[in-house]
Design a protein that fits this description.
23% of the residues lie in helices and 27% in strands. By secondary structure, it is of the alpha/beta class. It is globular and about 55 Å long.
């Protein structure tokens, strides 16, 4: 499995990090997890291209996770691609319908399939996935791909999610702010470290980074490491990780 970070930033631009997007590839299967602003450009820069992405899996519906969804649909239509599948938590169909009400000239341009999923097991783009609810200001899901990959989406750090991710080769986890920023709905390094304490995970990549984290990565890693002694790194746009 190849995991490519297309967007590791947040709703506040830094210039170096685009909004949320993660490309998952394995044995000819391709899946885009979230589609925030800039992800369409990162797809081109990655060498994969929007023509190769026919399925998008959404963690939740905040703008920085869905902003490039209709630009992706339009680009595929203009390139002669005929299909797009959008999968996500409850409310995904209403989201897509509302977007097409605003941009009605895109309605019917491709064969668009929208499916809603719930906590539990399902298949998407040939991947077997397990989902669980997370803790965020908008309803959302974390996703686990067998024992290889877990994606938190936007969420506070909590023991139930750490348990859900345990045994994964790779955990991609929200870590939006350093410890001195008072925040809910997102974790700080210390809260994430405490949640992960004692868990067995191959490697953790921190993502969904606000500008507040710039220049403070070493400090944040040290804070996580106070509680969790595993391999923790910061994700960067266009970094590709292989998982056996």
């Amino acid at each position: 499995m190849r995991v490519t970070f297309l967007g590791t930033g947040s709703a506040m631009p830094t210039g170096d990090r685009f909004q949320s997007g993660l490309l998952v590839q394995d044995e000819g299967r391709t899946l885009l997890v979230d589609c925030g602003s800039g992800v369409l450009h990162r797809l081109q820069q990655s060498g994969v291209g929007y023509e190769s992405v026919s399925t998008v899996l959404l963690t939740h519906h905040h703008l920085d996770h869905v902003a490039d969804l209709l630009p992706l649909l339009k680009a595929r239509w203009l390139a002669g691609e005929e299909t797009l599948t959008v999968v996500g938590p409850s409310g995904t169909k209403a989201l897509v319908d509302d977007l097409l009400d605003v941009h009605d000239y895109l309605d019917g341009r491709v064969d668009l399939s929208v499916r809603e999923v719930h906590p539990g097991e399902f298949s998407v783009a040939g991947f077997d996935v397990r989902a669980r609810e997370v803790r965020h200001s908008k309803y959302g899901l974390a996703y686990r791909f067998d024992d290889r990959l877990t994606v938190s989406g936007d969420t506070e750090a909590f023991a139930g999610l750490a348990s859900f991710a345990e045994g994964s080769g790779l955990l991609v986890h929200d870590c939006s702010f350093p410890d001195d920023v008072e925040v809910d709905n997102h974790p700080t390094p210390s809260s994430l470290g405490r949640a992960l304490s004692g868990r067995e995970i191959g490697r953790v990549y921190l993502t969904h980074l606000y500008p507040h984290t710039e220049g403070r990565h070493d400090e944040m890693l040290e804070s996580v490491g106070t509680h969790y002694d595993g391999d923790v790194r910061f994700a960067e746009d266009l970094t590709t990780v292989r998982i056996d």
